[in-house]
Amino acid sequence: YRQVLLPMLSPQSAAEYSADVAWRHYRLGMLDWARMVFSVFFKDASPQAFAKRTDNPNVGLVYRDLQASLDFVVRVDKCLAEFERELSTRHDRALGSRFRSRSSDALRPSGCR
């Protein structure tokens, strides 16, 4: 996808659209799709519901094949874990910088502030 997209972008945009950014966008898309799948299609998920859809080519694989659905859940879990790490890292950095500035101010003699 990225290799096809890059030549269509301006040189600056192409330089900024790194593989990491592309994978982040993929994970966001996966999580957005999962939101819809979990809220709409999985509410009636059962062996019987999967069996009814098994031979219907107009129904996505995750809606008609139990193993595909389980693999999808694993993939979504990995995407969520990646965003949790990203948010945790950002949060830790923000707290760390606030703590450092407050603690260093507290350690300075009052005449140095």
Commentary on this structure:
With 113 residues, the chain is mainly α. It is built from six helices and no strands. It has helices at residues 2-5, 11-16, 19-41, 47-53, 61-64, 66-107. Helix 3 packs across helix 6. The longest helix is centred in the C-terminal third of the chain and has 42 residues, at 66-107. It is flat, with a radius of gyration of 23 Å. It starts with a helix and ends in a 6-residue tail after the last helix. The model is unreliable at 101-113 (pLDDT under 50).
Can you tag this structure with a few keywords?
disordered C terminus, about 110 residues, flat, mainly alpha
Q: Into which percent range does the helicity of residues fall?
A: over 70%
Q: The biggest beta sheet, please?
A: none
Rg calc = 23 Å
Q: What is the count of helical runs?
A: 6
Run of helices and strands: HHHHHH
Overall outline? flat
Beta-strand residue percentage = under 5%
Helix-strand category:
mainly alpha
- The tally of strands reads 0
